[in-house]
Amino acid sequence: MKSVIADNLVKIYDKGKVRALDGLSLDVEEGTVLSVLGPNGAGKTTVVRILTTLLRADSGSASVAGIDVMKNPEKVREVIGLSGQYAAVDEILTGYDNLVMFGELYHLGKKNAVVRANELLERFQLTEAAKRPIKTYSGGMRRRLDLAASLIVKPKVLFLDEPTTGLDPRGRQEMWGVIQELVKGGVTLLLTTQYLEEADQLADDIVVIDTGKVIARGTSDALKKQVGGERLEVVVEQAHIAKTLEIVGAVSGNKASLDEGIRLVSAPVSTGSAALFEVLKSLDAAGIHALDVGLKRPSLDDVFLALTGHVAEEKKSEVEEKKKGRK
Amino acid sequence: MSAVNDVLIITRRQLLLLSRVPEVLIFSTIQPVMFVLLFRYVFGGSIETGQPGGYVQLLMPGIFVQTVAFTLAGTASGLAEDMKKGLIDRFRSLPISQSALVIGRTLGDSLLNIVVLAVMGIAGYIVGWRPSSGIGSVALGFIFLLFFGYALSWVGVLVGLSASDARVVQNVSFIVTFPLTFLSNAFAPTTGMPRALQYFAEWNPVSTMVAACRELFGLENQFGATAGSFPSENPLLTSLIYMVIIMVIFIPLSVRKYRNYAD
Q1: Distance, in angstroms, between A271 CA and closest chain B CA?
Q2: Greatest alpha-carbon span in chain B
Q3: Is the ipTM of this complex over 0.90?
Q4: Bridging pattern class, strands A33-37 and A188-193
Q5: Pick the CATH number of A225-325 from 3.20.20.70, 2.30.38.10, 3.30.565.10, 3.30.70.980
Q6: For residue B157, how many other CB atoms are within 10 A of its CB?
Q7: pLDDT of residue B123
Q8: Which of A215, B86, B123, B232 could pair with B225 as two cysteines, CB 3.0-4.6 Å apart?
Q9: Distance between the two ends of chain B, CA-based, in angstroms?
């Protein structure tokens, strides 16, 4: 069963100047994780805001847990959890205060709200910080508390909009751990990210979006295949570069290329580890010691570049425009 | 009934905020008390009022009204802050009544006004303010003031949700509120103003509120209510009408703005 369906969503800002969503469709199978991957300004947040009833689409339709988002927004709100890119909790209140307040707003009643708050604080390792104002929390702790707030009533579908944006590597790792736990517990999750690695780590399926449209969909593996096979890479001493280019080129059957700065010789190969073995043998025979050698599968960065013709970070100015457009 | 409950939870949140950051409460009372002292001792000596008890009798209603008028700024900047932090998104994604957040916020700001008015009243009493009407009339005056603050709080909701930045909100509210409180009979007689301004000042809701409070606090001299215009003759009624008009216009506008604020 599909837990989330978005069909041909269109959202236009600034009287037609910015098409934030341009006929976007996607769906999430119950109990799976879909990652919506795209650069800043691609429309990720807009689609989450529409699916979570915060924003109305100009056209198209959407449903969450079988409920029509446009027709029954208040019913949708009962079954979703949302955690946004800003930790949307009250900074002045303590972690405990926040969770109890949101619990009460979910109509748990004071007593149950307190019980639930303590459970969640414990689960997200925030018990010690429970009585401190949020403003004393680290970025990672804030995100965890925000996530906890979106799980007060076990949601049928959870939306995480860029859950690790702005976190340091450690905070990101922690957050990934927490999300992976949730996924093991069988939650249906729609996650947006601009980190290609994050989608790779957390999601069953990935849709890549750019300028408000889905430009590719599939598993991480399928997307990588779509872009091309593996590359064989060898790093050698300066003196051996010419000979290495020759060897790698011969094994690959294609012309090998060179990244001079890091003395990296590489070429596409189709035979995987067999090619690797052959190159090592030839290098050995030629008396060349490889400093580093490996088979590299294309990263999702490569996927993005291949699909859109630009790298993922290129569109900062457009983001600013869209933020203004939201006002 | 769950809608009422939602509102109360939001209002309680605001009281909780005040208890966690007592500075907010302290500064929201220090400023008006400072105004009382400054006006009382700087202008009090040079403004001839012909009023038994002196300038402070006329001043206190003026400062009360000015203070509750600034509720507009308080509500607006509070909401702008919540918006900036993404809190409004969270509230809007909850299965609660869609106007609970704004209603709770306006009620919370009115509760703050109760405290502020009480402290100001005490400060006024210390520097010689003695309302000469009965306790019932004085109480009614304060209820009037709270209502006026509450009505303006709804204007603040719209300002807060419309602005792009909390600092802009501060400036906009200040630019709106400050001239309104001074182009009035609050601190000086309107008779000294140029003709056109006198006209404006007389119809200014701040003036009608000030005049209404003066009446309720037992003053004869309406201080600038001059030309026998309708508002100066009927300040209580005019003020009530203003409050109703403000709420009838701004409550639906604000609630609608909140519901679609991202569109």
Answers
A1: 51
A2: 59
A3: no
A4: parallel
A5: 3.30.70.980
A6: 28
A7: 94
A8: B232
A9: 29
